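Record 1 of the preview.
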Amino acid sequence: MRDLLARAATDANAAEAVELFCYLAKKFLGALAAVLGGLDVLVFTAGIGENAPEVRRKICDGMGHLRLVVDAQPNGANAAVISTPESAASIRVIPTNEELMIARHTIGIIH
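->
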């Protein structure tokens, strides 16, 4: 994703890949919110969720029916909370240690 975002301004295919990723994430977010009857908290995590403010913004843009409002300054700084006080749900960025989780799952399978 980092490479796609870096090339998106000059490469139409890279820009389209980013847009498609965000569209699909938004689509599934909307579906899950419908099934759950709304959201209290939206969490972005892992590599893209932790490090791609533009992706987080694109996913939340157009989700006005859920009243998700991203605050640009904390979002750009990868802050822990990136929603405005007006947002109906808290939007958070939570770091993960994906390698540790893979190792734990692998050990669980081996033993």
